[in-house]
Amino acid sequence: MGQPQAESEGTEAGKPPLRVGMVGYAFMGAAHSQGWRTAGHVFDLPLNPVQAVICGRDAAAVRAAADRHGWASTETDWRALVERDDIDLVDICTPGDSHAEIALAALAAGKHVLCEKPLANTVEEATSMALAAEEAHARGQVAMVGFNYRRVPATAQARRMVAEGRLGRLRHVRVTYLQDWLVDPRFPLTWRLRREQAGSGSLGDLGAHIVDLAQYLVGEPLAGVSAVTETFVRERPLPTGATSGLSAVTSAGTGQVTVDDAALFTARFPSGALASFEATRYATGRKNALRIELNGERGSLAFDLERLNELSFHDATEPGAEAGFRRILVTEPDHPYLDAWWPPGHGLGYEHTFVHQARDLVHAIAEGRRPEPSFADGLQVQRVLAAVEESAEKNSVYTPIAV
Ligand code: SOE
Q: What is the pTM of this model?
């Protein structure tokens, strides 16, 4: 495939380029493309992100994705992309079964890496990735895992408030991530429903997000879990292969669902806070409802992704007669990320989390810093997912998280 020079390469205010090669072009590929396309135009970055190459197996489809999302050239084999010497960073937006292989090859080829969540399909894969990332860090490379919900200004603001002690000692963390796109039993058996491709079901897809977000907000890793999981619909129509968003066209015939449809678990933080988690794609009417509430001795905070410009805050130190939950509109310039965006009250959305992710990664690369969340953080989340599965298999027996 041709390798034309990306139009704006290295020209943005004379900044050195960060030439990105992205593997995958479906839902997450489109979201990451938005991030790369926009970050350098909104934030004053030390490097100029260049959308150099997009890669996918179907030549015509990847060409169309390149045109739609603004990539300068295409590849149909990720190995060729990883070996190109005009690429600085490999962005992995493929299903989980290829994360480890691509990331390890990219790190070995001297590239920085951004990898979509969950980091891998197994703890073994994630361990090898975290190890390779650590070795690569000594050579000046940076590897980040894409837990984008840390980059909602409201969740970053919540983290700030917890770290400042505004909630005091935490007692409860209550998290749910609810979607409903599997309610219809005729929904096709896409890759997200196959263990060999996705690793797990709602657990890895949604549970990984809320485990990362909860640990990020609390500021410590979980100690152990007690879980139940269920697969409600065990057989589904086979897809033809052509996908759109989360769905696909179906053909005749059915196949087995080999992942969980829902995962519920309780957990302990080492500092003593108790947590509950629920991840499901069967919450009829809930489209992308990620909700988290933290209760501490001095106050409480609540966030709902479907109202992502807001935080609810209760300050328990206020006089009882006046206290109560109040809405913080997280659109002020001194809220995280917002000094670069619109005037107060002009809110942001889902896609901006990917712009912020690109921004933070560019800074980490320019400063030679370990990024947050790192591959080591991704491995730790993978260990929690494995403990959830182990606990569910053993009838909810409390399962400590391996360190
Ligand atoms: C599907 O459940 C999905 O697209 C997840 O895979 C993403 O990580 C989440 O951000 C939105 O929902």
A: 0.95
